[in-house]
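Lab channel / #folding
Pinned by the channel admin:
"Please post every new chain as: sequence first, then the structure tokens as a reply. Keep commentary short and put observations after the output so the thread stays searchable."

First post following the new format, from NK:
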Amino acid sequence: MIRVLVVDDHPVVRHGLASMLRLTPDVELVGEAADGQEALDAILARAPDVVLLDLRMPRLSGVEVMRAARERGSTARFLVLTTYDTDEYIGPALAAGAQGYLLKDSPPEELLRAVRTLAQGQVALEPAVVARLLARVTEGPASDELSARELEVIRLLVGGASNKEIATALGLSENTIKTHLSRIFDKLGARSRAEVVAIALQRGLLSSS
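Reply from TO:
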């Protein structure tokens, strides 16, 4: 079972998500929170696997919740649910530790697929967000560190591709992809696939312009 916490300051949205999750066989709803501080308390007390998290909330923002949870040792994976798909929100959310980013008008089946994807340790990004990120991949300030092949791997990683999918797309073995990813992680100082996306944005590989 995937333990899920729902966090949103709008009661209709929060209760709607909770109702959907209660009807999902492989999901256990472990709680709801109406603001950032409630969310942080619930994350630390109930140890959810996945947190559905709004970004703009009272007391603590979604970004502040993620940062505070990480500082306190939480291993929860965060799926941001928001109405905003601009760089102003995407970059900070990924940098704070979000492994998923979906818009609130996403179909229920897409949301559930994202929850399962995060629970499996992968990244799930809204297609519109992926398109924005992919369109801005450029050989920026870090191009002297990252090879052309590593940049190709990052482009595919942005789309949430698995190692096997990246290997197939590039005509390489999975072991070779693992080697490339290890080097990318080392060069960017990343600890997760989502952090690669966030750091690439910060470093200029995914330009905010």
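NK: DSSP finds ten helices and six strands in the chain.
TO: also worth noting, The longest helix spans residues 174-188.
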